[in-house]
Amino acid sequence: MKLNQATVESFRSLNGEVINALPLFEVDELDRAESIVNSLDGLPIDSARALLEKVSKALTQLTVVRS
Question: pTM for the whole thing?
Answer without folding.
Answer: 0.67
